[in-house]
Amino acid sequence: MLPFKISICGLDEIERFAGDGVTHVISLLDPDWPDPEGWAALGTVEHHRFHMHDIVSDRPGWRPPLEEDVERLLQVGDLLARSEVGHLLVHCHFGRSRSTAAALILKAQHFPGREAEAAEALLDVRNPLWPNSRMIAYADTLLDRDGRLIEAARSLYARVAREHPQFAEFILRTERADEVPEE
Question: What is this structure's pTM?
Answer without folding.
Answer: 0.95
